[in-house]
Amino acid sequence: MTLQQFMNEAISPWMREEGPDSDIVLSSRIRLARNFAQYAFPILATEKDLQYINGFIRAEYENQSFQDYSDFAFVPIKDLTPVERRVLVEKHLISPHLAETNHASAVLISKNEQVSIMVNEEDHLRIQLYYPGSQLNKALKKVFELDDWLEGKIDYAFDEQRGYLTGCPTNVGTGMRASVMMHLPALSWTQQMSRLIPAINQLGLVVRGIYGEGSQATGNIFQISNQITLGKSEEDIVEDLQSVVRELIEHERNARNDIMEQSPIRLEDRIYRSYGVLTCSRIIESKEAAKCLSDVRLGIDSGIIENVSRNILNELMVLTQPGFLQQYAKKTLTPNERDVLRASLIRERMQLEN
Q: Measured in whole angstroms, how far is the alpha carbon of residue 149 from the centre of its chain?
């Protein structure tokens, strides 16, 4: 795989697949933090040590394959333009933190983009694996196998009492972050999310925006993940998160049903107004686009809008981000130019579907 192939497609191949409860749960992710035992963690490591780890990962794993994840591409972050870095963030292949680094950092990406392994981020390795829909247990089983494959050549920093040692104390123990990306428009419209978020936080979980820590929940998309990594097994952490996800799915379905029963005309009006904005606008900002895409997706999931694929909404949510717009245009764009191009691309894509 080449960098250009990752840049050309807005939607990763695995995202085209359907998963359980995929009308509400967009994706499930397991991320593991791992470090080399004999080297200082990135925050204190010398450039020489970081270069060694970078070179080791490239030599041992570039172009390699593991089970269904083939042809791992090694992408040095320093070789990327600011726009290319932003595109990889928008596709969730790297973190915003890794995009800002300029030392010996890199990312290893499988051909189907389901697996990405960040090198020299906050830890030597950040291993993340995605599945469509609500499939945390399946993702956990697979990431364990992937972790074992990597550990065959790497001596991890591990303590018998503390577990995996990490750059940030909050990750010590399992070193695992399990998360789901959920589309919760009805709970947002009815303002139930403002009451649910504090309750979720009390359970040792955290609610963030689409790009994780520090991001906002645009387009009614929320990321729910664990905060506790020490004192619980990986299976217990996933089960606790899965239990909350099941509750949120039930609450969202009930809220959608209530809206459809009590205010069907208002619901249809909102959905079709947003559909009209997407298909007719000549200029549209990213927040408005995200809000309209969320409305139309709900219309598709509710059967109000027919003959429009749910995948198109997934694609447009990425394609209309600033990095992708500039990658598409092959040049740096002003905010106004991005808003004009965003509207044009949405119109064209919606017309193709019709």
A: 23
Residue 78 makes CB contacts below 8 A (sequence gap 6+) with 102, 103, 104, 105
Query: What is the rounded distance in angstroms from the CA atom of residue 348 to the CA atom of residue 327?
Result: 17
**Whole-structure pTM value:** 0.91
Question: If you ran DSSP here, which 8-state letter would residue 156 be given?
Answer: B
- Predicted confidence (pLDDT) per residue in 57-96, tens digit: 999 999 999 998 989 999 999 999 999 999 999 999 999 9
Distance of alpha carbon 158 from alpha carbon 151, whole angstroms: 12
Query: Would you give the end-to-end CA distance of the chain in angstroms?
Result: 32
Binding site annotation covers 180? yes
Say if residue 9's pLDDT is above 80.
no
Q: Is 266 annotated as ligand-binding?
A: no
Is 350 assigned to a binding site? no
**30 annotated as belonging to a binding site for a ligand:** yes
Q: Is 29 annotated as a binding residue?
A: yes
Q: Is 27 annotated as a binding residue?
A: yes
208 annotated as ligand-binding: yes
Q: Is 177 annotated as a binding residue?
A: yes
Residue 233 contacts residue 304 (beta carbons within 8 Å): no
> Which structure tokens are listed for 33?
């933090």
Q: How far apart are alpha carbons 25 and 225 in whole angstroms? A: 13
Residue 209 annotated as binding site: yes
β-strand partners of 212:
209
Residues 244 and 224: beta-carbon distance below 8 Å: yes
**Which residues make Cβ contacts (< 8 Å) with residue 51, sequence separation at least 6?**
104
| Residue 92 annotated in ligand binding | yes
